[in-house]
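Journal club side-thread
Mid-discussion, someone asked how the predicted structure for our own chain would compare to the paper's figures. Pasting it here so we can look after the session.
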Amino acid sequence: MNLKGKVAIVTGGSSGIGLAIVLELARQGANIVINYHTHPKAAEELEKQVRGLGSHAIGVQADVSQIDDLRALFSQAVESFGRVDIMVNNAGVETRSSILDTTEEQYDKVLSINLKSAFFGTQLAAQQMIKQGGGGRIINISSVHEDWPMPGNTPYCLSKGGMRMLTRTAGVELAPHNILVVGVGPGAVETPINSATMKEPALLKKLDSAIPLGRMAKPEEIASLVAFLASDGASYLTATTVFVDGGIMQGSPGL
């Protein structure tokens, strides 16, 4: 999985799955643009870790739900590294709100950060990749909930379902340009978004018992798949989602 000389943008790259993706892509030789929203110190520390792995990185503050911020993110990437080869649409949030209780503010926040940012991130990445030539990879970090209902978390499921069709449609549309678009659908992962579950032994036991492999995924396990999808080894894979869920979608009713 040699990514030497490639340039990757990772949205929401300063924590959780995004952080693990940044480090794994750097291990494979890629230079990284680390997008963050509110934690500059975390991004600065991550830059140091990337340099320690022999790659280069810059942290760029941007609210990816805002198109002007996304444009500025790409401008800084190209200014710093000259090109963009890999776009990882990773930024995401959830509100844990049901269809009966979701407010307009909650709905707009989740759909803007999760789906709108992925749509325009895909658009801007594709435009840059076509301009520079040579194709590229767009990897959308989705969820098992693009396919699997989760009552009580409706906006999140809607956003991930939208990412599913974004991946499929963009993958078909961009194939003539050799731009591959693939979704990654994690199940339960040991990240801050699941901190409440991890702190409650009873909840954690219930979750682990629903996963055929018997445990949550580590962020590094998601990151290793992303690195593969960005590599030449995945050169015939597009317009689909690869689920990395420990078998939970097959082994348990929706959680």
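Post-session note: The radius of gyration is 17 Å.
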